[in-house]
Amino acid sequence: MRNEHKNPDNKSLDYIDRVNRAIDFILQNLDQSLKLEEVAKAACFSPFHFHRIFRSLVGESLNEFVKRIRLEHAIALLSQKTWATRRQQSLTEIAFACGFTSSADFSRCFKQRYGVPPSQFDVESFRLKRREEWQNAITDPKQRNLLNRLEPGANPDGFEVRLRRLPPRIVAYIRVLDSFRDGAVPRATERLVQWAEARGLADGQWLGYMWDNPEIVEYQNCRYDVGLEVPDVAPCGEVGRFEFPAMQVAEVEVRGPFDLGMRAMDWLFRSWLPSSGFVPTEQPGFEAWIGRPYAHGTSYFEFHLQLPIEQG
């Protein structure tokens, strides 16, 4: 969560689990009204106590968090104009898809946060600025150019797509908020590996997936789940449970440094996707590790990048 605890007690772990359940409920019902009582119920808290606990662990009030997630999702939908195979949603349709009560409410909230109404918003410039902020924050200046956005049509690494259909999956996960914080994801991975080894599950399919795009969401707010496919699991402490539906994915094999994975994602979105006849779904993109995560350290990675897609 927002603040890592070196030795969290059982009560702290229970609170982390319950707040994660609330976040999962929000993500799955973003187009609904999301009353405080309903979200608190999903977390098994009274509304009175839930508000305080959510803010202490997430760093935002529930209302601030939901509004931000809705607006960031709206920008993601506005970005889909680059995928010409899908009929463009109107601003009213986007407003309802993101849980706003009307297009006027959506426009007002959007302008409060971004300074202009959605009809005047420059999505491309916004995304470029966010990406530059992210690059500047996570890389050494001498290596910053390695994360420059890959131009449409460029494929210097020879990426190839394999289309796959994946069955429904149950995933045990540890969530990391502010996931680009130095060492945060590897430390969470170590904890989940220990949890899995104690249960004889550590040789299953390991996953990593980010719910947020750092070209849209401030990098400090990007949420990443370290995950492991399991037969079933009951939430326990900071280890949560999530069910993913059956899905089709475009899969690219990645074997190399961090920047190779970023180029693979750029290539999928900017070169392969526009001419594929597919569009991305609401599910996050996955890193399906080949073997255990970080088996080769933190400078070289082997995984299959999986982008959930559907027909445009």
Short description:
The chain is α+β, with helices and mostly antiparallel strands and 312 residues long. It contains 9 helices and 9 strands.
Description:
The protein has 312 residues and is of the alpha+beta class. The protein folds into three domains: 10-59; 69-121, Orthogonal Bundle (Arc Repressor Mutant, subunit A), CATH 1.10.10.60; 162-311, Regulatory factor, effector binding domain (Multidrug-efflux Transporter 1 Regulator Bmrr, Chain A, Alpha-Beta Barrel), CATH 3.20.80. It has helices spanning 10-28, 36-42, 47-58, 62-78, 91-97, 103-114, 123-138, 184-197, 258-272, and strands spanning 162-166, 169-176, 206-210, 224-229, 240-244, 247-256, 278-280, 285-289, 301-311. Strands 1, 2, 3, 4, 5, 6, 7, 8 and 9 form a nine-stranded antiparallel beta sheet that branches. Helix 5 packs across helix 6 (103-114). The longest helix is centred in the N-terminal third of the chain and has 19 residues, at 10-28. Residues 3-7 have low confidence and may be disordered.
Q: Which structural traits does this protein have?
A:
312 residues, 38% helix, single chain, disordered N terminus, alpha+beta, 9 strands, Arc Repressor Mutant, subunit A, 3 domains, Multidrug-efflux Transporter 1 Regulator Bmrr, Chain A
